[in-house]
Specification:
The complex is a heterodimer of chains A (about 375) and B (about 350). Chain A is mostly helical. Chain A has a domain at about 75-305. Helices cover about 70% and strands about 5% of the residues of chain A. In chain A, strands 1-4 form a two-stranded antiparallel sheet. In chain A, a hairpin with a 2-residue loop joins strand 2 (about 200) and strand 3. In chain A, helix 4 (about 65-90) packs across helix 12 (about 285-295). By secondary structure, chain B is mostly helical. Chain B has 13 helices and two strands. In chain B, strands 1-2 form a two-stranded antiparallel sheet. In chain B, a hairpin with a 2-residue loop joins strand 1 (about 285-290) and strand 2 (about 290-295). In chain B, helix 1 packs across helix 11 (about 245-255), helix 2 (about 40-60) packs antiparallel against helix 3 (about 65-95) and helix 2 crosses helix 10 (about 205-230). The longest helix of chain B is centred in the first third of the chain and has 29 residues, at about 65-95. Classes of the chains: A mainly alpha (about 375), B mainly alpha (about 350).
């Protein structure tokens, strides 16, 4: 591990400020570098990387049907990213978006399967959405309650609740809610057409709703009193308490909203895309959303392009399987490499690396800026 | 044979991958790194262990001997898991990235890599799947120790498992002794509890974090290899083979409250829950020894949910009544930078 020792010869100091341009350039280089590594992988499989990458992009932007499919997976990804981003801003590590999506999906599905004849379509869809928000909210509230009251570790609590929700669905579909149509096969009925979201420009109306939620969350975090409170709690709970804020209440309220948005994403999935509820409803969206939120610096508006990038990559992976015979799972490998590169690039945005021998003179600057920018460490 | 003996035997075999995953994550978390990439590292270990034997066999055109297959699979799966953990360490320890996010990225990467390589080499083989020969696979089957395995009750309870079960339990005991009685083990715990104090005592914090995380990841990798060789398929690649074992192992770390000794018991309990519905089916008359009873109608999924529910219960209970014995390492999840003090 001699290289470790050589690393310690270099001094690292926080940057005071970095221009937006330089930060963007570093991130851009990280993505290019990751795509370069991916290109080497593709080359080693005996394919032309440019042709493969082109095919991946073409899968989304080449045809209307592909674009619609990409947007359908983009919608819940963005929704869940907004949900976890809000909690992360409060330094509440909500990695339970997956379970909150499922909880929302269960609640919406209950009305879609058993009460779809009882009310007119707009009311039914509204009831489904509200039920999903409340169910997701409760799923987020439970760990927040214990964290606020006794400091119970929320990372692990929210993680566990994912699997509780998943098992509830698997139980429902193999028994109480099982469809009589698929005898013996654990599956639920498809939604009646009245319980499906209407389409606008060929894509279910969730895309408009999610953009509205982006704007709402943006203003909630940036302009509202509650948004300010949760960012103070994130910076320092003691400061918040000293300023007279009710920290417990803020934690529980924020997590109810966060879980509610994730639950709404579950509603979009079941009512807009899949038209039924299954163990694949969330399909890892809740986990990918964490990455999206983090790479966007927890800023709602930046989550739009990043969620789109991930959705395009996932869509493209299906295409290269049929076009080149490369297994679709290579998309996850590529996404993983891009994530690693972008995570590492944050280091170069927040810190400067100085060779201790050559740059002793710049020492003074490092001492003065202890103030951290967002999201440097846990 | 008695139903109960069969059940315990099956529980131990089913619980061993959890034991590996949990031990690996305990070692990792003792250094203060909360690595949520266990699932990914298990996938990497699974594909690494399988491919090492399978490619050697197809390359040489012969069936590998069982003993060599075990050695190779253990070694390569360890290296594969450690490689995943090394990526995590570089990012978290050197580049100071947020631990949860990095761990999730590692899971996405590892799951993708495992499935990708499994699918890729499956397509290239004549049979369409990656597999090892029956001869090599025999290395992962139950041991039949002369005399000992044939003792009634004692034999099936203690001397009738595959070799990896014994490896796992031996490693857990070694790990427990390591934490308690060796200088390096104590130093490691200091790094996890209070890295600043450890640094002041001139313990090389970064080196300890790297070493513990990489070795821990390697142990998780062995767990992944166990799943593919023993639990599900007997040495055939199945898409998404690890399917949640890694996440359950993360839960088990809490359930065992960071103790390798309790991890042995906990993994057997989780394993028992996994096989319970097959040995004690709902609504059936069960006879254990002199006792006969009808199994209540408990849904299958209840058993699958119970490990997570119990873990939540343990989390809540230990946070309401904090106890030095069962507390997580003090510096868990928090990166340490000397410059930021």
């Amino acid at each position: 591990m001699s290289w470790l020792r050589s690393v310690t010869d270099w001094r690292i100091s926080r940057r005071k400020a970095i221009s937006f341009k330089v930060a963007c350039l570093i991130r851009f280089l990280a993505v290019v570098g990751a795509l370069g590594i991916g290109a080497l992988v593709i080359l080693s499989l005996g394919h032309n990387p440019f042709a493969v990458y082109w095919e991946m992009v073409d899968a989304t932007f080449g045809a209307r049907i592909g674009f619609n499919a990409t947007i359908r997976s983009f919608i819940p990804l963005l929704g869940a990213a907004l949900a976890v981003g809000m909690a992360f801003k409060m330094r509440f590590w909500n990695i339970g978006a997956e379970g909150q999506i499922l909880a929302g999906g269960i609640a919406a599905t209950y009305f879609a399967l058993f009460h779809f004849e009882a009310m007119p379509r707009p009311i039914l869809l509204t009831v489904m959405a509200v039920a999903a928000i409340i169910a997701g909210g409760i799923w987020g509230f439970i760990p927040a309650f214990f964290r606020a009251r006794w400091g119970t570790n929320e990372t692990l609590f929210t993680l566990m609740l994912n699997y509780v929700a998943l098992r509830i669905i698997m139980h429902l579909q193999s028994g109480p809610w099982q469809s009589p149509l698929f005898a013996g096969f654990p599956m639920m009925d498809m939604f009646d057409p009245v319980a499906r979201l209407p389409q606008v420009f060929g894509i279910h109306i969730g895309w408009i709703m999610v953009l509205v939620v982006v704007v709402l969350v943006h203003f909630y975090l940036a302009k509202s009193k509650q948004g300010y409170q949760l960012s103070v709690v994130g910076e320092s709970e003691n400061t918040a308490r000293y300023a007279g804020m009710n920290v417990r209440r803020i934690v529980m309220r924020t997590m109810f909203i966060s879980g509610g948005i994730a639950g709404l994403s579950g509603f979009w999935i079941v009512s807009g895309a899949h038209f039924n509820l299954s163990e694949n409803t969330a399909g890892g969206v809740g986990f990918t959303a964490i990455i999206v939120a983090w790479l966007a610096g927890l800023k709602p508006l930046y989550m739009i392009p990043i969620a789109l990038l991930i959705a395009v990559l996932e869509r493209g992976s299906g295409r290269i399987q049929t076009a080149f015979g490369i297994p679709a799972t290579i998309a996850e490998v590529l996404i993983g490499i891009i994530l690693f590169a972008m995570l590492a690039s944050e280091f170069f945005i927040q810190y400067r690396v100085i060779n201790a021998k050559t740059a002793v003179a710049t020492n003074t600057e490092a001492v003065t800026d202890i103030e951290s920018t967002t999201g440097g460490d846990a | 044979m008695d139903l109960l003996v069969l059940f315990i035997n099956a529980a131990v075999i089913a619980g061993t991958p959890y034991l590996f995953g949990t031990m690996g994550e305990i070692l990792t978390e003792k250094s203060g790194n909360l690595n949520l990439g266990v699932e990914g590292m298990m996938f990497m270990g699974a594909i690494g262990g399988l491919l090492s034997v399978s490619l050697l066999e197809s390359g040489l055109g012969v069936d590998v001997a069982p003993g060599l297959a075990v050695l190779l699979a253990v070694g390569v799966s360890f290296l594969a898991g450690a490689a995943g953990a090394f990526i995590y360490s570089v990012l978290v320890v050197t580049f100071r990235t947020q631990q949860n996010v990095t761990g999730l990225a590692l899971t996405i990467f590892g799951v993708g890599l495992g499935n990708f390589l499994g699918d890729f080499f499956g397509r290239r083989s004549d049979t369409g799947i990656v597999r090892i020969s029956a001869r090599a696979g025999a290395g992962f089957s139950r041991l039949d120790i002369p005399v000992l395995s044939d003792i009634p009750y004692i034999g099936p309870l203690f001397f009738n498992y595959n070799i990896l079960v014994y490896l796992g339990i031996a490693m857990a005991i070694v790990l427990a002794l390591f934490f308690k009685y060796t200088r390096i083990g104590l130093n490691l715990r200091a790094v996890g509890e209070n890295p600043a104090a450890a640094d002041a005592a001139s313990i090389p914090v970064a080196k300890y974090k790297y070493a513990a995380t990489c070795i821990g990841g390697g142990i998780c990798g062995i767990g992944g290899m166990y799943i593919i060789m023993v639990t599900t398929a007997g040495g055939v690649w199945i898409h998404n083979v690890v399917a949640g074992f890694g996440w359950t192992s993360v839960a088990l770390v809490i359930f065992a409250s960071w103790s390798p000794r309790r991890a042995i018991l906990g993994s057997m309990i989780f394993g028992a829950l996994r096989v319970m519905p097959f040995y004690f089916p709902a609504n059936q008359l069960i006879t254990v020894g002199f006792i006969s009873f009808t199994m209540p109608n408990i849904p299958m999924q209840f058993y699958a949910m119970l490990p997570y529910a119990m873990t939540i219960f343990v989390l809540i209970f230990t946070s309401i009544r904090p106890n030095r014995e069962t507390n997580p390492p003090g510096g868990l999840g928090v990166n340490y930078f000397r410059e930021d003090r």
